[in-house]
Amino acid sequence: MTYQTILFDIDNTLINSANLIAETLQKGAAAVGVDVPLAEYRKRIGRPGDEILKEFGVPDWQKVLDGYMVEFGRNMHRLAYFPGIEALLLNLNKLGIQTGVVTSKDRLQFDAETKYFPLIAAAEIVTTSDLTANPKPSAEPLLYTVKTHQLDLERTLYIGDSVFDMQAAKAAQMDFASAGWGALPGIDFGSAKYALTRPDDVLKLI
């Protein structure tokens, strides 16, 4: 298969950020009396933060989420691309492959974080969670992206680190590749078309 477009999740696919997200959400929830193990937050990274907080029964979750945004912003200096991601994005650009991101972040979160990651900020395609009624694992974000940017679904690949990414791609009937460098050990990516271990594995698919 020759792909014209490659779409990426952001957290723990392009940027090594899932641990910081989980830690910050857990800290905010614990401050209002909801004590859930860090591992449970980490397993849910890939879904919007408000959904995670609601699932754990966090009272006044919007206030907690607002606090999360402030605390996360203070610690963005801890974030970094995974090794090989910058080279991958530059090589895809040189090869004329269209790239983009489909993320569970809203636009405010996306803009705040990608100030530190200009290659992501400059992506040709950006779909944030506030552009569709339902986030991943719904197919809506991917199908919205295909329709809005007039993509060829059969020649578009989505790459992510979580089961929510895989489920969204499957629901959208889009090819999916698991980002093994960022995924938690033991996740069953049985519905993935490709299992990638390094970012430069992507180049073998085009």
UniProtKB/TrEMBL annotation:
InterPro entries in UniProt: HAD-like_hydrolase_sf, HAD-like_sf, HAD-SF_hydro_IA, HAD_2, HAD_sf, PGP-like_dom2
One term of GO molecular function: hydrolase activity
Keyword Hydrolase among UniProt keywords: yes
Keyword tRNA processing attached: no
Keyword annotations from UniProtKB, A to Z: Hydrolase
EC number: 3.-.-.-
Source organism, top-level taxon: Bacteria
Enzyme class, first EC level, given as a word: hydrolase
NCBIfam families in the record: HAD-SF-IA-v1
The protein's name in its UniProt record: HAD family hydrolase
Organism lineage: Bacteria, Bacillati, Bacillota, Bacilli, Lactobacillales
